[in-house]
Design brief:
Blueprint (H helix, E strand, L loop, with lengths): L1 H15 L6 H20 L5 H10 E2 L2 E2 L9 E6 L5 H11 L6 E6 L16 E3 L17 H5 L1 H8 L6 E6 L2 E3 L1 H8 L9 E3 L5 H6 L11 E4 H17 L6 H11 L4 E3 L8 E3 L2 H4 L9 E3 L13 H14 L7 E6 L4 E6 L3 E5 L5 H4 L6 E3 L25 E10 L5 E8 L21 E7 L13 E8 L4 E7 L9
Parallel strand pairs: 3-4, 3-6, 4-5, 8-10, 19-21
Antiparallel strand pairs: 1-2, 6-9, 7-12, 8-9, 11-16, 13-14, 14-15, 15-17, 17-18, 18-19, 20-21
The structure holds 2-acetamido-2-deoxy-beta-D-glucopyranose (5 copies).
Length: 483
């Protein structure tokens, strides 16, 4: 019955978090807890755990095991003296000095970067791994140093950490979404949370059961502890695996733990223009991006770091809606609008159903292009010149908090002309003259993801001689069908 003590411990934490006005509910909950304990005693082997779970932990429709916040996480990031100069731009984009905890680990002391910047994570130098030389047959020569970052982070970390998050120096993390996702899981259990690659070939080469390291992944405290204790022995068992993330997956599997997939972690094993992918993000909060050195800049007509700055700026305004897709229709013109919040707005000159628009337009190519189809872990659509299928692409231009603070406005502008005639089968309603789309959303976090619906939208206003369309996001009504 050890689980009983554990769960009751968590209940206590939840109760102490209640504010004054919640006391009535707290008393009611306490009564139910007593009832639950009675059920537990009379039926110890039965379904009482499930009963307790559904009773206590389902607040606001989500499992909240504990009040996880950013200081419950510690980050371990592998870098090197040769990559830090440019890669620090990625890390400093998401790191919160004096709030986030963790370290970057160098291969050699970073003498040329001293005095150390206070907006970077503190640095450490990885332990010399030459003693593992005979076990290093890895194609990636620094794999052993990288996999040991989890152990070195565990040993350096302060007490009371719930989650250990590992990432590369070119990973960009969205911290509020990460914290929200992790709070769904019980950090006292053994969790390995991340995502595999977008490219079928990358998963086939490594493992479909592996959390790709560039996407970042989270390990719960007991798992990080067990790994840290067993890691050096484990490294010797797998001298031939390719990357540090694959060695780690093997070591985690040895402990009897398997991957929990969260689709918001993105390895981005894609090359070129990823706008099709980012315009049809899975219905789950975005947690990370990676490999931005290998893709076109996020927004066109900006360089990599300018466009990342804009993306991080908008993420600070509302990360919960970032890249979340909403679809609405302007029946009078037979147009479909597909918004990827904070990123893009697409107009199609036809009425297209959500099931179609949820498939990314394949504007990109896989990491390695020498695999047979299917190349991706998701369905795609091929870009075409059919005027009824090819969207008008608008990209984020600016974000503003409206007066009163109840609404957020994101503005999307056309970056290039579509250069196609109008779709004739739907009545020749060209969208060419439209130059700007304003999207109004509530200034409160969207509770999306598992078990939740996408937000609906309405076209509320057309002005500026019909070249600006204003769209408002809202919760869908009970029986509302988006198409
Ligand atoms: C972080 O805290 C230290 C010590 O309190 C302070 O010197 C430093 O300026 C702070 N850094 C930032 C970026 O706020
Ligand atoms: C690691 O130790 C070996 C053997 O002592 C030494 O030759 C090597 O230079 C060391 N490497 C680093 C990066 O300090
Ligand atoms: C991001 O926000 C900062 C602070 O508000 C602002 O100075 C900067 O111009 C913004 N950058 C971009 C690319 O929007
Ligand atoms: C919309 O398209 C349909 C064909 O898909 C057509 O029958 C209808 O007349 C069009 N409506 C308008 C307002 O053009
Ligand atoms: C749309 O335009 C084409 C070419 O100008 C024309 O042939 C067609 O009849 C038009 N369709 C409608 C529904 O107006």
């Amino acid at each position: 019955m050890s689980f009983c003590g554990l769960k009751l411990g968590a209940i206590k934490q939840n109760l102490t978090a209640l504010s004054g006005g919640d006391w009535c509910r707290a008393l009611a909950v306490a009564g139910l807890v007593l009832y639950a304990v009675c059920v537990l005693v009379s039926n110890p082997a039965g379904q009482s755990t499930a009963f307790l779970n559904s009773l206590i932990f389902r607040r606001h429709g989500r499992y909240l095991y504990t009040n996880t916040d950013i200081t419950d996480l510690v980050f371990g990031i592998a870098t090197s003296a040769s990559t830090w100069k440019t890669r620090r731009n990625y890390i400093e984009g998401w790191w919160r000095p004096n709030i986030t905890r963790g370290f970057v680990f160098f291969d050699v002391p970073p003498k040329e970067y001293l005095p150390w910047s206070s907006i970077s994570p503190p640095y450490r130098v990885s332990e010399n791994v030459s003693r593992f030389q005979e076990f290093n047959k890895h194609a990636m020569p620094f794999a052993i140093r990288m996999v040991r970052v989890i152990k070195e982070t565990f040993l350096e970390a302060p007490k009371g950490v719930k989650w250990y998050v590992m990432a590369d120096d070119d990973t960009v993390l969205f911290l509020d979404n990460l914290v929200e996702i992790l709070s769904k899981y019980d950090h006292n259990e053994y969790y390995y949370i991340g995502c595999n690659s977008e490219a079928v070939g990358s998963n086939a080469d490594h493992s479909f059961q592996m959390a790709f390291g560039g996407a970042g992944y989270a390990l719960s405290y007991p798992l990080a502890k067990a790994l840290a204790r067993n890691l050096d022995e484990c490294i010797k068992r797998y001298p031939n695996l390719y990357g540090s993330d694959h060695i780690l997956q093997a070591c985690i599997s040895d402990l009897g733990v398997s991957l929990t997939l969260e689709p918001g972690f993105h390895q981005i094993d894609l090359h070129g223009d990823i706008s099709g992918f980012l315009s049809a993000h899975p219905h789950s909060p975005i947690i990370s991006l990676h490999h931005l050195d290998y893709t076109n800049p996020l927004y066109p007509a900006m360089n990599v770091f300018q466009s990342l700055k804009l993306f991080m700026n908008v993420s600070r305004v509302d990360s919960s809606r970032l890249l979340q897709q909403s679809i609405c229709y302007q029946k009078k013109n037979n147009w479909t609008f597909s918004i990827s919040w904070g990123y893009s707005a697409l107009i199609y000159e036809d009425i297209l159903p959500p099931s179609h628009l949820e498939r990314p337009l394949q504007t990109f190519v896989p990491w390695r292009n020498n695999y047979r189809a299917p190349a991706f872990m998701f369905n795609t659509r091929y870009p075409t010149n059919n005027p009824c299928e090819a969207p008008h692409f608008f990209f984020l231009d600016s974000v503003e908090q409206k007066t009163g603070g109840y609404e957020i406005v994101t503005n999307y502008v056309r970056k290039w002309d579509r250069r196609l005639p109008a779709c004739s089968k739907t009545g020749n309603h060209s969208a060419d003259s439209l130059s700007r789309i304003r999207v109004i959303s509530p200034a409160k976090r969207y509770d999306g993801g598992e078990g939740k619906r996408r937000e609906c939208c309405d076209i509320v206003r057309i002005y500026g001689g019909s070249d600006i369309t204003e769209i408002k996001l809202r919760s869908c009504m009970e029986d509302e069908i988006i198409a």
